TrEMBL record:
It comes from Actinopolymorpha rutila. The lineage of its organism: Bacteria, Bacillati, Actinomycetota, Actinomycetes, Propionibacteriales. Keywords: Membrane, Transmembrane, Transmembrane helix. Residues 25-34 have a biased composition (Basic and acidic residues). This is Uncharacterized protein. Residues 1-74 are annotated as: Disordered.
Amino acid sequence: MQWYDGPARPDRLPPPVSDPPPPAEESRSDRGRSYGDGSPGARSRDPDPRGGPAYDSDPYARRPAPGDGMDADVAEVGSPRRRLPRWVRFALAVATALVVGWLALTRLTAPDADVRVSRPRFVDNFTTRVDVTVRSRVGDPQVVLAPRPSALPGLEFAGVNGAADPTVQGRVEWRSIRLPGHGQRGFSLYWKVRDCADALAAGEREVAVPLRVVGAGGAGSTLRMSLGVQSGLLPSVCTTDQGTGRPRLVDTGPVRGAGPSSLLVFVTVQNVGGRPLTYRDTVVTAAPSVRVVSPSGDSAGPDPVRQGQPRLVPVGEERTIPLDFRANDCRVPLDSAAMVTMRFTGGEASARPVELTVRLADSWENFLGVCAES
């Protein structure tokens, strides 16, 4: 490449700058319009050819900034609010009135006490316990009356304890308890199983107990205690041995003379099965043909079997059965132990008898005495 250091070539020189043309001479009318506002430096405003207001002919003129008081009024554009139909507003008003009225009525007719019930607990294999707490909602004292549950298949209501103490027989007597104002009291309900077959047949039957609470003026209310379903009240015997009754020996005394030639023995038996037991008879174990007399009634016994009543042993209960032995009865095997077999019917009458062996003494000779000479 060759470098040229000489004077600039004519064809490479920039074009000459010409002076701007002089402004055209304004007419007198234009000069008057330019100074129409009294200021020679004021900008000219040309009328809008469409008939509108004058507009600035200077495109570089300063526009008014927002917020300097020169903003144009712009109307907000939005959809108009639609009002609900008249029937809808009427329905809402009626519904509101009904709800408020119902709440007020519920408040006025609410009972003066409420009740809480615990889950069932089992005292033993045959008894169910339910704890109840009654709480007052008013300042006046009230009285809680005895609950009267309806009959349940296979179960027996065994009573209530609270302010009462158990009796000698083990059952509790009810006494009305006083409920102080804004206070609470507790008690327990008891059920005993009498026949697991009937109780299990009831299944998921709901158990509800009414409880009457009376105020000082005589007005009262009835509370509803829901205890769940009947299957939840069944003790363990209805799970382990619900098919039949089972006798268990409790005691074999006392032994005393019932006459000049007889001995009377009281045998106490408990039914630990799930169905009631019915006593049938007693035989000598070594000689099943020898039957022991069981008197139908004895007022001197601890728990006599009355004439005409079945010798029933309920589930979980104890019964004392008197046995009458004839002294000097040589029909018994004197060389064997004095043992008898008590026979019961458990459940169905046609079922196989349930037997209980009872040992009375080491030998019949010691139990009955020397056999009389023939």
